[in-house]
User: Which sequence fits this backbone?
């Protein structure tokens, strides 16, 4: 297809003209109320499809598809695009069933309207599994409507008509008509029920399954793609927000008048802050307290923060420190757990009979999401309503957050989806969206609120740290017979902090006859949330590292021990042991596990993990030198995400990216707390893998199975972390039980 | 203070404080949004532009230091995607979120301008200051090698 940049605003509603020659810059902008209205001239672009609701109901092709008279097909991308490629993936599905050529397709980003488009979200690797069926139906029903329109026009039975490349064909009379010529008729029709329409046989797919470049590539490489941070409104000002460094802290006083007197500063004011109605932990604020500075350009507002003098009431959270978290966990590990959540068989009895027992403690740190585009949103509050442009992963939830923060109803909140520079779970929380709305309301005008990198890293909803006290036993035949875990996490009473819980069914539960899982919680002042592969990004490390320890205790090959643990192909309480064994066998075969002669100081590690509906096994080959410098030479990935990879190009990138992301988490990333404040502030202290550290090769193998297609944003990440740690053990004999690796003296070569 | 700049071949003048980073002059004064903010301390390279042909971090370059040499931003590579680096980036389908890619491409273009056939080692040296949070490094390396094989069309203009 021709790469046509979509601004997220509708092409005609926003024109940016950079007339550098004359030193004049114009932001031509149509009224925001137009920005959310679909282009009226495009035939076939319907409203709500005759009242057929989308949210939970059947989606109308008229909401998603329009065909211009010249045959150019416009398909709406319904979900937020934050780098996962969904703006390409879902329209591919629609286009294939619609039976048009991809070169004729243009994609536009849909606004937030969950009645029209169904659930709109980016998270949990749900984009493909939740939309696979519905997008196929949208395309297929759309195709059927063009067929019906042609049948009416020609007065022939529909059964005599076929379609190809955006045309309806009547072979008997040798006639063809383009969808574009039928679009006006189709626009007046009521879509038939999806159940009455035949979907394509997958062997006839022409677009699905073909490596397809992302639709926004041209915009990205020419610098024209509009990200959330690039939004502009007429008369827009720029805001920076100095938040309480301690969650729940409050401004007592600030030198507001001095700040207001600085050049280019337009507004400065204190934000009281707002608690959520029922917070579990202090991190869950509706609005943070602090000082907002609004200026002609962002750098002026940001620079003014250096002159800001604030007296804070830090509140009780200021007594918290990472050192104490670890001490508390250690002390709690020696006492009776708060709650027992699973108890299969008799662990104590089994451990007594075990040939070998391993009793060890694992821990992992808080991690920041740090998407490369810091949090920001642009808001325009006017006449009691607010319009917002943001890269939220949960724009529906964003409406709620905004409404709660500024005291209006959700009906008065409009959210436009703008491309996001990464998200990784950070943009599931709409705190910055609510803040932008609040600032706009306060200054009664359009404003872009931008967080600095430091704000972003120090006011995140962190991947929760955790402590796991594990005891395992193998019998004389080398079988894992007992597994006990005392998990020490965060919360109050029976409630865990966000993303800090662990399922009682977490593997190897269900596969060990004597299994006990208990949980204790300690209070936490910083906010937690879902980071890419939430839960799994830490649990994969713990479980697959510990299983590796048990394999060595049993004197077994780590792959064979795992295959034995999975056992016969069967589904155990929802966990498909057969699918996991298959990917494990595939990755072992492709990596020539146990067959390759390793170079000096070089070895392989293996791990598997099931998450987000995906079965993944990975092998990593590392070299470790005498100075503990680690080089990841190669990674092999075997993946089962069902019957169909929609876009193999996007799928490969997501998996390779997840592997590299996992490497970052393995080596360097750790957020620590001192006096309730986050210590790390920027990438030098929370490092991302660089080009020279990335493995030269990440080989990906898909094992296709007759299961519905599922997502790829997350499940490739968890196994790489333990696979690296297990490989390091294989080289050095040093078992890694604490992340990041830098704490144990390792660094990238 | 008024500063005279040449951006993507076009002279312009801005009235801003002398210590204002070029990044924010480009973004918030000249409305050239292709150059991105990622860290503000020269750690990520998302703001990489050319100053007199050298790849520099616009977040650490005060506007007062940018008056003597022409500035090129990603918009100045070409408006139509015809620069070899842009072509290669599209052909290899490099971007995920794409936010870092303007900086990646500017570093790559500066490398290729000096070294028409860079080795992996050359790429390591030139590109290690540019972070990609999505992890597109394998594609970036491939795209630089690809770009080295694409001939620049003489007719193409760096201006828009």
Assistant:
């Amino acid at each position: 297809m021709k790469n046509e940049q979509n601004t997220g605003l509708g092409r005609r509603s926003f024109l940016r003209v950079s007339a550098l020659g004359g030193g004049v810059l114009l932001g031509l902008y149509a009224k925001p109320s137009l920005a959310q209205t679909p282009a009226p001239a495009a035939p076939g672009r319907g409203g709500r499809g005759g009242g057929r609701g989308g949210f939970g109901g059947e989606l109308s092709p008229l909401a998603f598809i329009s065909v211009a008279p010249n045959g150019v097909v416009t398909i709406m991308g319904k979900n937020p695009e934050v780098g996962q490629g969904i703006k390409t993936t879902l329209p591919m599905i629609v286009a294939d069933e619609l039976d048009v050529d991809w070169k004729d397709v243009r994609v536009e980003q849909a606004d937030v309207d969950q009645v029209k488009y169904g659930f709109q979200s980016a998270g949990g690797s749900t984009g493909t599994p939740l939309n696979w069926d519905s997008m196929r139906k949208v395309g297929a029903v759309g195709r059927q409507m063009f067929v019906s329109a042609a049948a009416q026009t020609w007065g022939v039975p529909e059964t005599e008509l076929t379609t190809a490349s955006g045309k309806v064909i009547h072979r008997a009379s040798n006639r063809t008509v383009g969808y574009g010529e039928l679009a006006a008729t189709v626009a007046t029709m009521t879509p038939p029920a999806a159940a009455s329409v035949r979907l394509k046989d997958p062997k006839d797919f022409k677009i699905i399954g073909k490596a397809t470049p992302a639709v926004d590539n041209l915009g990205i490489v020419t610098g024209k793609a509009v990200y959330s941070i690039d939004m502009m409104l007429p008369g827009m000002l720029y805001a920076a927000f100095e938040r309480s460094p301690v969650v729940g802290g409050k401004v007592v006083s600030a030198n507001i008048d001095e700040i207001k007197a600085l050049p280019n500063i337009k507004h400065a004011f204190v934000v009281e802050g707002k608690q959520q109605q029922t917070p579990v932990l202090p991190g869950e604020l509706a609005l943070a307290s602090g000082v907002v500075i609004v200026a002609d350009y962002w750098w002026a507002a940001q620079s003014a923060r250096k002159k800001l003098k604030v007296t804070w009431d830090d509140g009780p959270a200021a007594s918290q420190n990472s050192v104490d978290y670890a001490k508390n966990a250690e002390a709690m590990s020696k006492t009776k757990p708060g709650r027992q959540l699973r108890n299969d068989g008799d662990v104590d009895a089994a451990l007594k009979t075990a040939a070998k027992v391993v009793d060890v403690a694992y821990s992992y740190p808080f991690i920041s999401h740090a998407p490369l585009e810091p949090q920001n949103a642009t808001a325009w509050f006017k006449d009691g309503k607010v319009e917002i442009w943001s890269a939220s992963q949960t724009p529906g939830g964003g409406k709620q957050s905004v409404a709660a923060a500024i005291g209006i109803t959700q009906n008065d909140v409009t959210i436009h989806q703008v491309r996001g520079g990464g998200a990784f779970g950070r943009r599931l929380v709409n705190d910055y969206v609510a803040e932008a709305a609040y600032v706009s309301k306060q200054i009664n005008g359009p404003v872009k609120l931008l967080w600095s990198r430091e704000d972003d890293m120090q006011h995140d909803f962190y991947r929760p740290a955790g402590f796991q006290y594990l005891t395992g036993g193998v019998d004389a035949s080398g079988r894992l017979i007992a597994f006990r875990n005392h998990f020490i996490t965060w919360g109050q009473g029976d409630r865990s902090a966000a993303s800090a819980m662990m399922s009682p069914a977490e593997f190897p539960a269900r596969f060990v006859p004597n299994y006990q899982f208990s949980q204790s919680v300690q209070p936490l002042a910083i906010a937690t949330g879902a980071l890419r592969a939430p839960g799994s990004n830490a649990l994969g490390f713990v479980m697959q590292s510990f299983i590796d320890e048990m394999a060595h205790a049993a004197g077994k090959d780590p792959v064979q021990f795992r295959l034995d643990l999975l056992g016969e192909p069967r589904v155990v309480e929802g966990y498909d042991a057969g699918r996991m064994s298959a990917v494990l066998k595939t990755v072992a075969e492709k990596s020539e596990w146990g067959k390759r002669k390793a170079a000096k100081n070089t070895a392989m590690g293996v791990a598997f993990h099931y998450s987000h509906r995906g079965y993944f096994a990975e092998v990593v080959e590392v070299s470790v030198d005498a100075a503990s410098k680690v080089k990841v030479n190669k990674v092999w990935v075997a993946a089962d995400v069902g019957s169909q990879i929609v876009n193999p190009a996007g799928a490969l990138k997501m998996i390779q990216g997840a592997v590299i992301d996992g490497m970052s988490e393995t080596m360097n990333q750790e957020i620590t707390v001192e006096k309730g404040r986050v210590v790390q502030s920027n990438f030098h202290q929370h490092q991302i893998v660089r080009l020279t550290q990335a493995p030269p090769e990440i080989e990906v193998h898909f094992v296709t199975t007759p299961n519905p297609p599922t997502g790829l944003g997350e499940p490739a990440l968890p196994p790489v972390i333990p696979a690296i740690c297990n490989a390091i053990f294989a080289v050095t004999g040093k078992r890694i039980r604490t992340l990041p690796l830098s704490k144990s003296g390792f660094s990238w070569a | 203070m008024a500063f005279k700049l040449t951006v993507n071949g076009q002279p312009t003048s801005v009235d801003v404080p002398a210590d204002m980073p070029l990044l924010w002059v480009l973004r918030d004064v000249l409305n050239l949004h292709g150059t991105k903010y990622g860290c503000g301390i020269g750690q990520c390279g998302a703001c990489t532009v050319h100053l007199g042909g050298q790849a520099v971090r616009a977040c650490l370059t005060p506007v007062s230091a940018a008056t003597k040499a022409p500035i090129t931003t990603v918009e100045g590579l070409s408006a139509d995607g015809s620069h070899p680096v842009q072509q290669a980036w599209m052909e290899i389908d490099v971007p995920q979120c794409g936010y870092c890619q303007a900086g990646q491409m500017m570093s790559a273009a500066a490398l290729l301008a000096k070294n028409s056939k860079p080795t992996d080692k050359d790429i390591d040296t030139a590109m290690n200051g540019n972070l990609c949070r999505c992890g597109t490094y394998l594609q970036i390396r491939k795209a630089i090698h690809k770009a080295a094989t694409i001939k620049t069309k003489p007719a193409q203009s760096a201006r828009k």
